[in-house]
Amino acid sequence: MSESMKGNVRRGARRWYGAARGLALSFWMPFVCMALSQAISFPYLPLVAAIVVALVGAWVPGRPHAGKSAWRIVRELLAWLFAAVHFAVVVLWLYFATGAFGFGTNPVFQASVKDADRIVVRDGGGLCHSDPDKEPSLLEITNKAEIAAFNEMIEFSGRKMQCKCCGYPGIDWWRDGRRVVVSALHHGYALRVEGYVGDLRLSVESSRRLQKWLEENCGVTEGNGCPRYQDCRYGRDIIEAVAQNLVTTGVERKPTLSDLRREFKKIGGKFPSCPAGGKYSLTYGEDGTPTVKCSVPRHD
Ligand SMILES: [Zn+2]
Ligand SMILES: [Zn+2]
């Protein structure tokens, strides 16, 4: 090896060491950047900062040194160790903040819904105490342009959360009669999507647009967090209980809905109604058991 080549190798090694030293001295930086990342919804900040520090470190390489003292060796080992810690923290952060290194969360999701031929907004949640096959739909869109416009609204910020509820409403994508993506909106700002770890936070703009869209198209407001068919069923249960009570106490043999309305007024209660706008009908079984049915499909 010629002297000039040796010199190049030494300079190269010093630059690498310079980068490592930069990372080691700023091993605390990812923690600050993580907090900032959360604040500005940019999960790649720790990575960007680490790259900048490494470049600056390489630009200002370590001083050349002839002999190696024990202290110098320890110091260099520590630099590499802290640089490794810095690197590991940045990688772990990216993994947890974005999922599967998240470089693809948005593109991967968009690719999975791109060819959908139907989007169903469900009167239910997702991936917990819910059965997407039994829940009534609030709205279905099958128009290609409308589907594309809906998909375009969805943009993940890279942040994640994990809450204990099932979310509302459910939003599913179908293709060729098969459900390809099951999801549920959480609190208006996160989407729990089957196959993804954690609930994917939407960007501020995306969340605002999606909520507005759901309110305008499905009458779903943020406070409207419970499946409507469940509310409807509870309401009908109450009406049935009051009717049953009138029958067994012999006040009325077979009270009609208007009788019951009067009865509710008397006891000062609000007469239940279907949140989805369904009409109630009341029938009596052979044994005189009252049954209230709702006109909305699947409200049973
Ligand atoms: Zn939730
Ligand atoms: Zn109903």
Describe this structure in words.
- 48% of the residues lie in helices and 16% in strands.
- It is α+β, with helices and mostly antiparallel strands and 300 residues long.
- It has three domains: 3-98; 105-218, Sandwich (Immunoglobulin-like); 228-294, Pantoate--beta-alanine Ligase, Chain: A,domain 2, CATH 3.30.1300.
- It has a seven-stranded antiparallel beta sheet. The chain has a two-stranded antiparallel sheet with strand order 8-9.
- One zinc ion binds at residues 232, 274, 276, 278, 294, 296, 299.
Features of the shown structure:
single chain, 300 residues, alpha+beta, Immunoglobulin-like, Pantoate--beta-alanine Ligase, Chain: A,domain 2, 9 strands, 16% strand, binds zinc ion
For the record, the CATH architecture of the largest domain stands as Sandwich
Report the portion of residues in β strands.
Answer: 15-25%
Task: Give helix % range.
Answer: 40-55%
Task: List unreliable stretches of 5+ residues.
Answer: none
Q: Indicate the overall shape.
A: elongated
Small ligands present: zinc ion
Helix/strand-derived category reads: alpha+beta
Write down the domain tally.
Answer: 3
Give the number of DSSP strands.
9
Q: How would the blueprint of this fold be written?
A:
Elements: H1 3-25, H2 29-40, H3 45-59, H4 70-98, H5 105-113, E1 118-122, E2 137-141, H6 144-153, E3 156-161, E4 170-175, E5 178-186, E6 190-193, E7 199-202, H7 204-218, H8 228-248, H9 257-267, E8 280-284, E9 290-294
Antiparallel strand pairs: 1-2, 1-4, 3-7, 4-5, 5-6, 6-7, 8-9
Helix pairs in contact: 1-3, 1-4, 2-3, 2-4
Bound molecules: zinc ion (ZN) (2 copies).
